[in-house]
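Write out the 3D structure for:
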Amino acid sequence: MEPNTADTPFIRRYMAFQAIEDYRQFKHNRPMTGFQPAAKQVLAAFVLLAAAMVAPAHAKDLALIANKGGGIDSISMADLVKVCKGQTARWPDGKPVTLIIREPGSPDMKMMVDKIYGVTVEELRDLITTANHGRANRPAIIVVNTDEDVIRRVQAAPGTVGLVDVYSITGAVTVVKIGGKLPLEAGYALHGN
């Protein structure tokens, strides 16, 4: 019989908690009922595996996406930083540059804040305000709530680029090479680890 999918996260958390509790007893040389000495090594491995299953992933690979009609297929990391800081107003073909990102304070965007901006979240919010000053009709940086919102906005306007989780990419946008590399290639600049 297949388990109820609604109970699966609860069951995983319970199993991980139980395994950690058993490991603590093992570590402090307390008797563990039902475990033979050889099974203690297996228990230690299981504890690590269970903790990995339960722990949320904090480092995600990000992808730079562009509007399909935008003609942007590659960018250097230095030029990407300029775009992200609102220092580039137009692409070489004359189209205005707009960057769409998710909320800088969200856990999914921590890597972006660290690798691209190198500032605190509050400093980034100030930078966004400054970059958008005087660009009311086409802001330099737009903040949205979800990767789906980023994709929708990028898809709608030529010259627009956005940063999304690699696994959110759809066929509606173009993935831009950064420093000659695509996401998941060795040496990719926005790799999360």
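The first strand starts at residue 62 and ends at 67.
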